[in-house]
Design a protein that fits this description.
about 120 residues, mainly alpha, 8 helices, two-stranded antiparallel ribbon, 434 Repressor (Amino-terminal Domain)
Length: about 120
């Protein structure tokens, strides 16, 4: 993933990689294709509900869905719900990350991934 990519650019990239038209993706996601076009071209603001629908329409399995949903939420400058819960459970570790000069939603997410992966095993909080 290229730095500074917008959520709309990422959605378009994923859609094209899957050889889908805007109409096909919009239909699969339960959205109007003009709305999807506006999302891809950064002409409209949208929330978590649209991100969930688009993520679900772009992937087949739950693991890929969760990963894509989290990525798109972060690109939209929002913290995914599961990450919010983990942050509340482990406040001290995450607060240190936020107070760093370069702290951001994305640095929180990196910290979450570091904490949740131990060796080849994924740790549940």
């Amino acid at each position: 993933m290229v730095k500074n990519k917008t959520i709309g650019q990422r959605i378009r990239e994923l859609r094209l990689a899957r050889k889908m038209t805007q109409v096909k993706l919009a239909k699969k996601a339960g959205l109007d294709f003009t709305y999807l076009s506006k999302i891809e071209n950064a002409k409209v603001t949208f929330g978590e509900r649209a991100i969930k629908k688009i993520s679900r329409a772009l992937v087949k399995d739950d693991r890929s869905y969760k990963s894509l949903y989290e990525e798109l939420m972060l690109l939209n400058n929002k913290i995914p719900e599961g990450l919010k819960k983990d942050i509340l459970k482990h406040k001290e570790e995450f607060l240190g990350e936020l107070h760093r000069p370069q702290g951001s939603h994305k640095s929180l997410y990196r910290k979450y991934r570091e904490m949740s992966t131990v060796g080849n095993e994924t740790r549940r909080f």
